């Protein structure tokens, strides 16, 4: 495992003072199902922290880089930067999937290429870097990791998050604004998983999962957009 952690540190270009923090960031909750007698914990607390660090970094960066942007424009652009799709793309560029500790079942179902798992693990890794260093250092690393996507996304004339994209599609095809409904919640309070459905009228179009309602809604909207894109 130590050699594996060294490989990942080369890819992210950061050497941990405490490699146990990086190890913790890679433990998906499914792995614990096959190691019930271990003292290990999932990476979800690290993910929670990394999400907050990423939100602060993106807000700070956009505020400084684009003084001409109003609040609405910065909010929409930030949504695109921190959305699952963008985090997944950055995770894929780091080949993060091969380092995640998964159950055999999750791995057999494509867990190493699952968008949500990769995005969540990237956030957990950001949390681990923050705990191992400081806010200035983690901001420097995020500047490098997100540079290409930030340049690309900020060059767009219109900034739309996944929910906004599906809303436009639904209004165009059905003339109705979609709405979201929480279908279920599972897990303890600090590790809740939400299942959310996106509806057009009474028709459920798709469902999504996430460790927050916002992430679950985003996941559902991405699936719904794919479904509608395949409609004739």
Structure notes:
The chain is mainly α and about 230 residues long. The chain has two domains: about 1-155, Ribonuclease iii, N-terminal Endonuclease Domain, Chain A (Orthogonal Bundle), CATH 1.10.1520; about 160-230, Double Stranded RNA Binding Domain, CATH 3.30.160. The chain has twelve helices and three strands, in the order H-H-H-H-H-H-H-H-H-H-H-E-E-E-H. Strand 2 and strand 3 (about 205-210) form a beta hairpin. Helix 2 (about 20-25) packs antiparallel against helix 8 (about 115-130). The longest helix has 22 residues, at about 45-65. The model has no long low-confidence stretch (mean pLDDT about 90).
Overall average residue pLDDT: 89
Radius of gyration: 18 Å
CATH class descriptor name of the largest domain: Mainly Alpha
Strand fraction equals 5-15%
Second-tier CATH architecture of the largest domain: Orthogonal Bundle
CATH T-level fold name of the largest domain: Ribonuclease iii, N-terminal Endonuclease Domain, Chain A
- What's the helix count? 12
Biggest sheet, in brief?
A: 3 strands, antiparallel
User: What is the helix fraction of residues, given as a range?
Assistant: 55-70%
Q: What's the SSE pattern?
A: HHHHHHHHHHHEEEH
CATH superfamily of the largest domain: Ribonuclease III domain
Number of domains: 2
For the biggest β-sheet, the strand order reads 1-2-3
Residue runs with pLDDT of under 50 for 5 or more positions: none
Counted beta strands: 3
Question: Structural class of the secondary structure composition?
Answer: mainly alpha
Shape: globular
User: In whole angstroms, how far apart are the ends?
Assistant: 49 Å
